[in-house]
């Protein structure tokens, strides 16, 4: 079963508008969440992260919100730019997860298209 | 460029052949991870090293797969007797102990014919 879910395979947004990418998780042991961006033929690039002790983290145009009670996080990009067009992966990590020391559990990704 | 480096970028092989991939992590990173990504999926964890010690293996890592990190620097991932189902992107990542942020290489795309 998928422990990290990105239910929207794709999202199309107009340049300058806000992009909101969503992610749900099922495992309450997850205590750290990350967003990665992936361009074709490249590896995932770290974007922004948030610890479970926070509910918001901001870095320039990117903000991640965490709602622990709903087991939901979202990535907001504002304003969106054409160069933001990529696949965005949500990932989660647990300090103690079946003995794991921090391997990441990824969602399937959301393909964002920002139209000029 | 001091990022994670993977070689080769692409590998085409015939079913039944053995293949080996190499990963060079960011130099000061002591943790190294291998993931596999197939079409339409996110990366899936295979195994990871703390220095030269292999500390965890996923159930995805069948007996045909073996990974090494002999001197705690670069790592190799070998697949023996490849099958068509092994076709995927193999990603390597590295991190510092205590950091949960992993930095990925560009990956090795394996095609098994």
Keywords:
heterodimer, A: 116 residues, five-stranded antiparallel beta sheet, 11 strands, 52% strand, B: 113 residues, mainly beta, seven-stranded mixed beta sheet
Please tell me about this protein's structure.
The complex is a heterodimer of chains A (116) and B (113). Chain A is mainly β and 116 residues long. Chain A contains no helices and eleven strands. Chain A is globular. The model of chain A has no long low-confidence stretch (mean pLDDT 93). In chain B, strands 2, 4, 5, 6, 9, 10 and 11 form a seven-stranded mixed beta sheet that branches. A four-stranded antiparallel beta sheet of chain B has the order 1-3-8-7, with no helix packed on it. By secondary structure, chain B is an all-beta fold. Chain B has strands at residues 5-7, 10-13, 19-24, 31-37, 44-50, 53-57, 65-68, 75-79, 88-95, 103-104, 108-112. In chain B, a hairpin with a 2-residue loop joins strand 5 (44-50) and strand 6 (53-57). Chain B is built from no helices and eleven strands. Classes of the chains: A mainly beta (116), B mainly beta (113). The interface between A and B is medium-sized, with 25 and 27 residues.
In a few lines, what is going on in this structure?
The complex is a heterodimer of chains A (116) and B (113). Chain A has 116 residues and is an all-beta fold.
List the helices and strands and how they pair.
The complex is a heterodimer of chains A (116) and B (113).
Chain A: E1 4-5, E2 10-14, E3 19-25, E4 32-38, E5 45-51, E6 56-59, E7 62-67, E8 72-77, E9 86-93, E10 105-106, E11 110-115
Parallel strand pairs in A: 2-11
Antiparallel strand pairs in A: 1-3, 3-8, 4-5, 4-9, 6-7, 7-8, 9-10, 9-11
Chain B: E1 5-7, E2 10-13, E3 19-24, E4 31-37, E5 44-50, E6 53-57, E7 65-68, E8 75-79, E9 88-95, E10 103-104, E11 108-112
